């Protein structure tokens, strides 16, 4: 062996020399995939618009007083369809209520229904998706059929039946009823997405590596599959949250969702729709807020999906 | 074309003690430290930049080459960048090479060396953005592929220059029969009739030695084995009788026995059809079997180019030397493989000076400071981008 | 010849058939892919057995069988005297400490959401009794140093490392439980040439230091030659030839081995004229329907009627004292 060959060799003892990655590259800081996604999100203006809108809606839901001092229930028919005045910058509706105040206060019902329904959906979808995807076989076949059956139920029809049945034993606004209706009918998409990303994660080599180390199913599901399967699931839930808010408004509009005295965009849209010839603002304001809120959640979900999609990344 | 191999081509294996400079035969004066005039004054290319000694700070000035159209495909000083989250990735940094009809040029490099991006740029299939071609030319018969109109480029691509990819399964459309895919371009561009297209498809499949071509013409890609799919893709690429065929790792996904068949086929077709073949690969074994000339890339730069016998017999650049030494050989059962320390650089942070210096056993202070230019060695079409001539490298460890 | 030590792993007639089923509601078996079809071999402590063959020959399935990632159809595999194939979950878990695997793809074999410290330390979490006394972090740091990585990088994520470095992380994880056998399934084929050599050297050094036995699976015959003491050549689920590295490479008697060796590209352009590549006709037959008799006969240039009717056993042939499964075994030197 020539000296030259020796020189071209780095013997084993000096491996430490190659540990700083790529020679002169400044060593990168610890950076998780989530941090990378956050880096992408920060540079996406759609994310910021959506996030700002979402924060605004949540603020309205939590502290409506911040936006409107007027009492949305302090109505006076003498002010019916009156124009903007004083605090009521959008004027008054059919019953003489402050349109702006009602719209601001309507956010709470929408956000509450959306959040709780999505939580319910998330829990059902996560459990179904994880079990079906991880264990496969007959369990997967069974759970998938359940999903198919639930998917086959028309939402409106089931909502009418369920809300009639549930509302019978219940007084009040009907928030719980709407949440249950949405939750038990709306989880199928989330479960399907979870199942397919669990299937993908389960076939990865690192899961095989954990199995070879002797890891049990719980550890594999919790440590290895869940963190890698969660991103698309969260995206779907975010988008679902938007659609749930729209559905709540639809149900309320059809008089099978929330009921007065609850304040909801859906109820207001329904009422204002009948009198749109007299005054458009009572219809426009809640419609606009509803549209923006739904859009904001869907855009947020899209932005997160893009940030987590490795294919868009170099 | 025929190519003159240097006289020392007989088994002058690297590592068997090539000793003093005489084995290189051409061009070098006796003393390794004497200034060597080895600029780009190759008559063939018409470059003329006298670069004096090894100590001269290299310049990256673009060199005008007056005569054009001398080579079939002539890529000159190509620079390509990618915008990434971590900064600008300098993927191709001043790459030049050329091919002539009937010749096989191998572009050899590891992952991240920029070899595939170079090919994609030449073919005009590079996604821009994120890629940006900063400068350079890719002259095909004197016409610049990089600046021509998209319509013209589409004409050239496929008809004049075609490409074969590594993964035939994903390069073929699963929902169409192979015969249909092979002649798709013929039908859409040349308006060949259906019956004629069928005849041509069988002809092409015969050409790439697919057995029972007439029976298999209506089969779908998944009905073929890996090697046969690769043949289908070659047939597809050759349907328009291109003058240049670029093969990007054409055998990497295949088994050794099939690998040999495909390389054979490519070599035969190149000779029969008088094509220029550009073989992009990381596999030193495959290259040795078929290439006429080799361009070695590292960190987006050409670090060495030479004819195949010189490159294997007397590699000049420390990277090429290390690479050759680290290949395990069938006939040698060694005690420890020779390895190059470290990892290829990140294109976002290419080391200053010579990009190879952090991994180079010969690196000196100047290697950290100044980037070596690709300097001609001897009279042949042979060059190395190292501050030190091969004799100096040999002497350093004598 | 020195006295052979007892094998640490003895595989007897391992079989894995994947059923081919039709029908969604009531699946019924219509056939089987015979991925591994009766493979036997011994592995002695501290030695390396190279397993070579082309894609689809069953070498990776065999690795999965031994790691019990797939359940075997038949056969036995004794690891330190315990039958891996007939072991219940609890016992298997304990036995896994003695045998680990390094996987092919360093990009998918590490969980992207765990730090290097978590990945290398996970074996200790699964087997708390195997964790070294005292500080677990220190054990992780020592493992990283052992494979040539800087312990400072312990809280980085896998995607911040190059392929070669990731493969080192995978090796550190496999070493954590101090196994005696490591199955290396194509451990360097996804790596660059210049990095391949580093990892091969590392594996050899670890073998010397820790007395590991390797089953080294690869399609690159040069790498296998380099690292292996003994070689087994597989074709369509069976071993067709086995022996010491020199026997198989220098004195191959099975036509398939000869064809395989002749096709290996040689990084030497001057060898072009000298090389004689044995061209095999046709493709590898489907493992769902392997040929009768000798499985290689459909592509063999020496095939006789006898090859179709009578399956050649893997036994010593007159020409050279190593087992070869060919009726007409003869020496044919391929490597100069």
TrEMBL record, chain A:
Pfam families: BPD_transp_1, OppC_N
Annotated segments matching region Disordered: 8-29
Coarse class of the protein's main subcellular location: membrane
Lineage: superkingdom: Bacteria
Domain ABC transmembrane type-1: 107-301
Transmembrane segment boundaries: 45-70, 111-136, 142-162, 174-194, 229-254, 283-304
Keyword line: Cell membrane, Membrane, Transmembrane, Transmembrane helix, Transport
Keyword Iron: no
Membrane-related topology note: Multi-pass membrane protein
Subcellular location: Cell membrane
Family: Belongs to the binding-protein-dependent transport system permease family.
Name by which UniProt lists this protein: ABC transporter permease
Natural source organism: Asanoa iriomotensis
Automatic annotation (TrEMBL), chain B:
Pfam family membership, one: ABC_tran
CDD domains documented for this protein: ABC_NikE_OppD_transporters
The entry's keywords: ATP-binding, Cell membrane, Membrane, Nucleotide-binding, Transport
Keyword Zinc-finger part of the UniProt annotation: no
Region (Disordered): 1-33
Molecular function in Gene Ontology: ATP binding
Record-linked InterPro entries: AAA+_ATPase, ABC_Ni/Peptide_Import, ABC_transporter-like_ATP-bd, ABC_transporter-like_CS, Oligopep_ABC_C, P-loop_NTPase
SMART domains reported for this sequence: AAA
Span of domain ABC transporter: 73-324
Recorded topology in the membrane: Peripheral membrane protein
Gene3D superfamilies: P-loop containing nucleotide triphosphate hydrolases (3.40.50.300)
Feature: compositional bias, Gly residues: 10-24
Subcellular compartments: Cell membrane
Protein origin, superkingdom: Bacteria
Assigned protein family: Belongs to the ABC transporter superfamily.
NCBIfam families: oligo_HPY
Protein name as catalogued: ABC transporter ATP-binding protein
Organism of derivation: Asanoa iriomotensis
TrEMBL record, chain C:
Protein name: ABC transporter ATP-binding protein
Transport listed as a keyword: yes
GO MF annotation terms: ATP binding
Pfam families for the chain: ABC_tran, oligo_HPY
Record flagged with keyword Nucleotide-binding: yes
Keywords per UniProt: ATP-binding, Nucleotide-binding, Transport
Residue span(s) of domain ABC transporter: 9-261
Family: Belongs to the ABC transporter superfamily.
SMART domains cross-referenced by the UniProt entry: AAA
InterPro entries per the UniProt record, alphabetical: AAA+_ATPase, ABC_transp_ATP-bind, ABC_transporter-like_ATP-bd, ABC_transporter-like_CS, Oligopep_ABC_C, P-loop_NTPase
Taxonomy, superkingdom: Bacteria
């Amino acid at each position: 062996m020539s000296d030259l060959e020796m020189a071209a060799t780095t013997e084993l003892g000096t491996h430490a020399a190659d540990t700083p990655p790529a020679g002169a590259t400044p060593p990168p800081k610890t950076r998780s995939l989530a941090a990378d996604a956050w880096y992408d999100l920060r540079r996406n203006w759609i994310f910021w618009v959506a996030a700002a809108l979402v924060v605004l809606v949540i603020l309205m839901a939590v502290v409506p007083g911040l936006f409107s001092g007027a009492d949305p229930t302090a109505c006076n028919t003498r002010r019916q369809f009156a124009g903007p005045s004083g605090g009521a910058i959008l004027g008054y509706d059919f019953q003489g209520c402050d349109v702006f105040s009602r719209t601001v206060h309507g956010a709470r019902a929408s956000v509450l229904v959306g959040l709780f329904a999505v939580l319910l959906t998330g829990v059902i979808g996560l459990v179904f998706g994880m079990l079906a995807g991880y264990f496969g076989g007959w369990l997967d076949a069974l759970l998938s059929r359940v999903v198919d059956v639930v998917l086959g139920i028309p939402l409106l029809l089931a909502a009418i039946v369920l809300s009639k049945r549930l509302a019978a034993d219940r007084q009040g606004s009907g928030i719980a009823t709407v949440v249950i209706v949405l939750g038990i009918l709306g989880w199928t998409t989330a479960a399907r997405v979870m199942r397919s990303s669990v299937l993908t994660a389960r076939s990865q080599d690192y899961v095989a590596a954990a199995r070879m180390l002797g890891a049990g199913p719980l550890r594999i599901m919790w440590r290895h599959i869940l963190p890698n399967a969660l991103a698309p699931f969260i995206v779907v839930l975010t988008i679902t949250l938007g659609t749930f808010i729209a559905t709540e408004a639809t149900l309320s509009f059809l008089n099978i969702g929330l009921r007065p005295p609850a304040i909801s965009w859906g109820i207001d849209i329904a009422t204002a729709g009948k009198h749109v010839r007299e005054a458009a603002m009572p219809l426009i304001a809640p419609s606009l807020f509803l549209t923006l809120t739904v859009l904001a959640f869907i855009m947020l979900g899209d932005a997160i999906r893009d940030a987590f999609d490795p294919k868009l990344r170099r | 074309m025929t190519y003159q191999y240097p006289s020392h081509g007989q088994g002058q294996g690297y590592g068997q003690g090539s000793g003093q400079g005489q084995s290189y035969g051409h061009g070098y004066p006796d003393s390794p430290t004497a200034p060597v005039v080895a600029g780009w004054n190759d008559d063939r290319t018409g470059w003329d930049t006298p670069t004096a000694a090894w100590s001269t700070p290299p310049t990256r000035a673009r060199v005008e080459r007056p005569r054009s159209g001398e080579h079939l495909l002539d890529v000159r000083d190509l620079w390509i960048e990618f915008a990434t989250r971590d900064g600008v990735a300098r993927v191709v940094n001043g790459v030049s090479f050329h091919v002539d009809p009937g010749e096989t040029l191998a572009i050899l490099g590891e992952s991240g060396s920029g070899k595939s991006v170079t090919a994609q740029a030449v073919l005009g299939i590079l996604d821009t953005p994120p890629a940006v071609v900063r400068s350079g030319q890719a002259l095909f018969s004197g016409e610049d592929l990089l600046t021509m109109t998209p319509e013209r480029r589409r004409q050239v691509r496929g008809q004049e220059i075609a490409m074969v990819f590594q993964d035939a399964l994903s390069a073929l459309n699963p929902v169409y029969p192979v015969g249909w895919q092979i002649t798709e371009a013929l039908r859409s561009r040349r308006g060949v009739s259906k019956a004629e297209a069928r005849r041509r498809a069988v002809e092409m499949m015969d050409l790439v030695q697919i057995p029972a071509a007439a029976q298999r013409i209506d089969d779908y890609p998944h009905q073929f084995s890996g090697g046969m799919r690769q043949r289908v893709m070659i047939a597809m690429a050759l349907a328009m009788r291109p003058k240049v065929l670029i093969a990007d790792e054409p055998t990497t996904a295949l088994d050794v026995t099939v690998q040999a068949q495909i390389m054979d086929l490519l070599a035969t077709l190149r000779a029969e059809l008088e094509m220029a073949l550009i073989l992009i690969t990381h596999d030193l074994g495959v290259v040795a079997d078929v290439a006429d000339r080799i361009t070695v890339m590292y960190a987006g730069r050409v670090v060495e180019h030479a004819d195949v016998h010189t490159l294997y017999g007397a590699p000049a650049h420390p990277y090429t030397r290390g690479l050759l030494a680290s290949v395990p050989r069938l006939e040698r059962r060694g005690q420890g493989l020779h390895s190059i320390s470290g990892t290829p650089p990140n294109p976002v942070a290419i080391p200053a000076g010579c990009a190879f210096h952090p991994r180079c056993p010969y690196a000196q202070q100047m290697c950290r400071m100044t980037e070596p230019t690709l300097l001609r060695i001897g009279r042949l079409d042979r060059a190395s981008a190292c501050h030190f001539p091969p004799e100096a490298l040999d002497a350093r460890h004598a | 010849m020195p006295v052979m030590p007892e094998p640490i792993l003895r595989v007897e007639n391992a079989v894995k058939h994947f059923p081919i089923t039709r029908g969604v509601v009531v699946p019924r078996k219509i056939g089987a892919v015979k991925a591994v079809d009766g493979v036997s071999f011994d592995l002695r402590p501290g030695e390396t057995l190279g397993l070579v063959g082309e894609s689809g020959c069953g070498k990776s399935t065999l690795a999965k069988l031994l790691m019990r990632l797939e359940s075997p159809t038949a056969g036995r595999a004794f690891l330190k005297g315990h039958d891996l194939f007939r072991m219940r979950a609890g016992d298997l878990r304990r036995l896994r400490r003695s045998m680990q695997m390094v996987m092919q793809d360093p990009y998918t074999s590490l969980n992207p959401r765990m730090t290097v410290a978590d990945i290398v330390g996970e074996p200790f979490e699964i087997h708390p009794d195997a964790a070294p006394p005292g500080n677990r972090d220190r054990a992780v740091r020592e493992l990283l140093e052992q494979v040539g990585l800087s312990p400072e990088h312990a809280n980085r994520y896998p995607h911040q490392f190059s392929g070669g470095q990731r493969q080192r992380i995978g090796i550190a994880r496999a070493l954590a439980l101090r196994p005696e056998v490591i199955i290396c399934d194509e451990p360097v084929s996804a790596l660059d040439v210049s990095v391949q050599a580093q990892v091969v050297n590392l594996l050899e050094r670890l073998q010397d230091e820790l007395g590991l036995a390797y089953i080294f699976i690869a399609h690159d015959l040069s790498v296998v030659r380099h690292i292996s003491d003994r070689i087994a050549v597989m074709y369509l689920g069976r071993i067709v030839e086995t022996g010491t590295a020199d026997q198989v490479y220098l004195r191959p008697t099975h036509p398939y081995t000869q064809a395989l060796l002749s096709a290996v590209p040689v990084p030497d352009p001057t060898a072009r004229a000298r090389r004689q590549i044995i061209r095999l006709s046709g493709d590898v037959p489907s493992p769902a329907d392997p040929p009768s008799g000798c499985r290689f006969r459909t592509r063999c240039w020496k095939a006789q009627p006898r090859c179709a009717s009578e399956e050649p056993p893997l036994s010593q042939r007159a020409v050279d004292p190593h087992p070869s499964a060919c009726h007409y075994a003869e020496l044919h030197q391929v490597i100069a």
